Amino acid sequence: MSNATDLAGQVVVITGAAGDLGWGIACQCLQAGANVALVDLDMAALQARGAPEDPRLLRVQCDVADPAQTRAAVQSVLSRWDRLDVLVNNAAVVTPGDKIGDLASAHWHQALAINLTGAWLMSKAALAPMRRAGRGVVLNVASQLGSVAAPGRGAYGASKAGLIALARAIAVDHADEGIRALSLSPGAVLTSRVLRRYGDADSATAALAGRYPAGRLGNVEEVARTALFLMGEGAAFITGTDVRVDGGYSAI
Questions:
Q1: pLDDT at residue 5, as a whole number
Q2: Which of 105, 164, 194, 239 has CB 3.0 to 4.6 Å from 183, enough for a Cys bridge?
């Protein structure tokens, strides 16, 4: 393991950790020596991730849109390990694919509450121990749709654009306290959500790959390895920016 991705002894908190991407990032962090707090609303799904008695894992049920629950989640982490080094804001919901003019207000508010406000609440809670320690990393998992638009994805795209802006704001506000903040914007990735939508990997690739200069879709490990790099010392001078892992989608 190179020093650039050595997280030995560090504590990484990942929201939306029951999903494929969140768990993929968790696996990379575990391999790099970190202790990992898996945070998700679905505790049953969390219990299915990883070995039940792994001392390096902590599973925390949390609705990231609830201020009290986000504070309690961070306190659970501190009670277990007495430190918090990295926060990965990955929790997200995809609302129905309606045009902006047809979008229900409930779906708009749901997308912003979970995808954006939830990241702010988790960041606010996690920044307190980071500031005391004089170091830390906040990584927001945004999307290519935070930079370019797609039909029927207005609420999702707005929330992800907000995540990119939030990372920049955290970076500027807290750089003098040793804290870095970034956003990571994946393109279409072969997760179980994509496979359910299109039926299988071949169908998803046939439907989507032509939009990508790379000629294919991404996979979870590619995104997770990029996330791991951004957490580590190899990225120590990278802050306040968005890193796109989108096969060139947003370049055209």
A1: 75
A2: 164
